[in-house]
Design goal:
Elements: H1 2-17, H2 28-35, E1 46-47, H3 59-70, H4 75-80, E2 84-92, E3 98-105, H5 111-120, E4 128-130, E5 133-145, H6 159-166
Parallel strand pairs: 1-5
Antiparallel strand pairs: 2-3, 2-5, 4-5
Length: 168
């Protein structure tokens, strides 16, 4: 009984301590304008999942060619025998620009920096779409570093990239 009395007293205190200026009611239309409807009012919203994800211009084959052409195996990583995957996250804007590039999980020895540099040299991407509109979308990407002569097995999709990287 005491708990319910205290709760009721607290609610009454809150209800009577607010003045009319502290409370404002808005119509649903006004709330929609303040909060922003996805893809309309709030143009800076970044989507994690979109109906049509951003793509590298020319598709996967063009991305592989860009990777093979621009990615350089860091000397420090070669000397120390460092191999592995660098996972990067970035936003593809509505204009196709890459922003907010971050290393999510790196391996060090210059590989993390090289993965970011490779993305910075990337041409503009084809932006993602949500409900038929261009939107900002967050992407994640794995960049594989593997030295030649290593016995480490890799998945089938990465073999072409790994072979080219190991010859650099």
């Amino acid at each position: 009984m005491k708990k319910s009395t205290l709760l009721l007293a607290a609610l009454l205190f809150v209800a009577f301590s607010c003045s009319d200026e502290d409370i404002s009611l808005e119509s649903i239309d006004q709330v929609g304008q303040v909060v922003g409807i996805a893809g309309e009012q709030n143009s800076d919203e970044v989507f994690l999942i979109v109906e049509e994800p951003p793509t590298f211009p020319g598709g996967t084959d063009a991305y592989t060619k860009h990777l093979l052409t621009n990615l350089k195996y860091p000397e420090q990583a070669k000397k120390e025998g460092i191999e592995g995957n660098v996972f990067v996250s970035f936003v593809v804007t509505k204009e196709g620009k890459l922003e907010d590039i971050k290393v999510v999980r790196g391996i060090g020895a210059g590989c993390d920096t090289e993965a970011v540099r490779m993305l910075l040299t990337s041409p503009d991407w084809t932006p993602g779409k949500q409900r038929g509109r261009l939107v900002n979308a967050r992407m994640s990407l794995r960049v594989a570093f593997k030295l030649s002569g290593s016995e480490t097995k890799v998945d089938e999709g990465s073999q072409a990239i790994v072979k080219a990287l190991s010859s650099l």
